[in-house]
Amino acid sequence: MAEVASDVPRRVARRPRLRGATALLGTVPFFAYVTVFLVIPTLVVVIGAFAGDEGGFTLGNVEALGNGYVLDAFGRSTALSAMSAVIGAVLGALLAYALVTAKPDGLLRRTVTAAAGVLAQFGGVTLAFAFLATIGLSGFVTVWLRDTAGIDLYANGVWLFELPGLTLVYTYFQIPLMVIVFLPALDGIRPQWREATESLGGTTWHYWTRVAGPLLGPAFLGSTLLLFANSFSAYATAAALVSQGSPLVPLQIRGALTSEVLLGQQNVGKAMALGMVVVVSVVMALYTLLQTRTSRWLG
Length: 299
Fold this sequence. Notes:
- The protein is mainly α.
- The protein has helices spanning 2-26, 28-49, 60-63, 68-101, 107-119, 124-135, 140-149, 163-187, 191-199, 204-232, 236-241, 249-258, 266-298.
- The relative contact order is 0.12.
């Protein structure tokens, strides 16, 4: 009996270890996925950015990032990402606030939230075709406005395939993404805080500038940074719309990797990809910092 009693604490001590090992085993597929589709491609990009055409270390690929066409591509991508992120953040925040004021379990909130989850992932060739069929040169809205109201959407040029058109198309999936990421922060605002402000003689302006605004500021900025990174790395939608030239960094990378005219540019494309990785890493680091502050204040 004494031996059996002394063996009980050992078995009890083994159970947490087995549970911990089982939990770690369940994460193996996730880490395998991350390794194959994130870690290894990143290493390939980093190594290739500093590799010559015949092997060996070189800085020539990174120095090529100073060329005019590369700087222009980074400038266009930054401008496109910034404009679509700001527009999407403002409109998405307003829509998210409208949902917060509705019933938490109401049909409106559930419908809009579900639609936002779908539309945030609606991009690529499908989205490009939708805009071409709607407001393209022969789109039904373009033709209807021209035939019925005499309005020519492209009287001053085909803007759909340029920066303004890309901004409009990107904003389409930026708004629902903002709703998804900003809605939890709005849910964290307590109604009692407004009541306390009013009981102390404060107005709506005082509430938003001194209570809700400072609390929601980090969450709004963090969500905007997430939208910037989402737009900066987008490829398929721009590739489907822009067929002439390569005005954006992802399209420049595609041209460097697949061009049959300028050979030996693969590693230059990897250097441009490394530049994108650096930009997105900085943006996501700032996003993480802001989200940490938001969770501490609104958690």
